[in-house]
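Support request from a user on the community tier.

User writes: "When I paste my structure tokens into the form, the page sometimes reloads and wipes my input. The last time it worked, I copied everything first. Here is what I submitted, just in case something in the input itself triggers the reload:"
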């Protein structure tokens, strides 16, 4: 029988990297299946830290699957973010915590979708009696998924089921969830080895305000100083991007996830003047715009500009 590939969305976040490892363990040891976790994109810094902390090898990265493959989808049912070739593979199971996107399959999969903050919480419930046989490192990976997806139980997506699962998994893994969360967020905040362009574009989206196209990048970090120290390079690169992509402007918000504020870097004086108006805040002596309480592009930053235009 062909090996079953257990996979999340592409590119993978921490949940889509580590929850497939946990479910592959369950399928192997409790269902007697030949199952293995794979990722369809590069490992992020947070997942790299989590895997090395628990001494677990990263899933092999693959670019596509074929009609020879059987797939178990974890953490996604969105056709837009599945591995290349998924249409020809046989999808035998889907476990998810997202809305339904209209995935079409040739055969009949087992489907479990529950409205929790993390798919690891769904897996924890599905495993039932197998919970007591779970190795420490698998429990650790699942706890890390819940911490990552729910920002350590602070995101509005968090449910009581997630809280209970994280507590049980943390005990099993022998970790203190709060301090482990700090280490995970620090790993995610480390910019070492990233190019200026990668820092700007890891989480950047384009928006049309009137007829003008703006790019708004966000960096969520516990160490804003590391990014702000690169201010000159970031500004220069934003101007290159502005020319390359015919943008009216570009803004880069460095969000401090501990203090709950943002510092804005802009491509030009014109963009900075615009932001001062949008937020009703003046730049400080060093020319930085510090925005208390601003953490969300979707709920705060974009609406401020939309109102101005
Ligand atoms: Mn998830």
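"...and here is what came back when it finally went through:"
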């Amino acid at each position: 029988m062909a090996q079953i590939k257990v996979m999340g969305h592409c590119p993978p976040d921490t949940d889509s990297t580590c929850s497939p490892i946990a479910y592959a363990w369950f399928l192997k040891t409790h269902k007697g299946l030949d199952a293995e976790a794979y990722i369809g994109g590069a490992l992020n810094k947070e997942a790299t830290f989590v895997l090395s902390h628990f001494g677990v090898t990263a899933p092999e990265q693959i670019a596509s699957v074929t009609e020879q493959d059987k797939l178990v989808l974890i953490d996604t049912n969105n056709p837009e973010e599945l591995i290349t070739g998924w249409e020809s593979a046989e999808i035998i199971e889907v476990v998810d915590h997202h809305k339904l996107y209209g995935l079409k399959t040739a055969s009949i999969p087992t489907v479990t979708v529950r409205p929790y903050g993390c798919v690891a919480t769904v897996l924890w419930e599905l495993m039932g009696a197998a919970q007591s046989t779970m190795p420490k490192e698998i429990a650790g990976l699942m706890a890390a998924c819940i911490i990552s997806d729910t920002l350590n139980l602070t995101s509005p997506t968090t449910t009581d089921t997630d809280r209970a699962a994280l507590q049980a998994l943390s005990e099993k893994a022998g970790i203190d969830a709060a301090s482990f969360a700090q280490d995970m967020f620090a790993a995610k905040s480390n910019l070492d080895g990233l190019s200026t362009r990668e820092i700007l574009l890891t989480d950047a989206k384009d928006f049309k305000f009137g007829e003008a196209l703006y790019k708004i990048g966000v960096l969520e970090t516990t160490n804003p100083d590391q990014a702000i120290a690169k201010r000159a390079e970031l500004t220069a690169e934003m101007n290159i991007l502005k020319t390359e992509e015919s943008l009216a402007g570009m803004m880069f918000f460095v969000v401090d996830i501990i203090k709950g504020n943002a510092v804005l870097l802009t491509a030009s004086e014109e963009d900075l003047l615009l932001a001062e108006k949008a937020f009703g805040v003046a730049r400080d002596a060093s020319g930085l715009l510090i925005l208390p309480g601003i953490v969300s592009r979707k709920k705060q930053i974009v609406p401020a500009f939309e109102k101005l235009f």
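Agent notes: The reload is a front-end session timeout and is unrelated to the input. The pocket of manganese (II) ion is lined by residues 15, 75, 97, 118-119, 149 (CB under 6 Å). Residues 196-308 form a domain with the Diaminopimelate Epimerase; Chain A, domain 1 fold (CATH 3.10.310.20). Escalated to web team.
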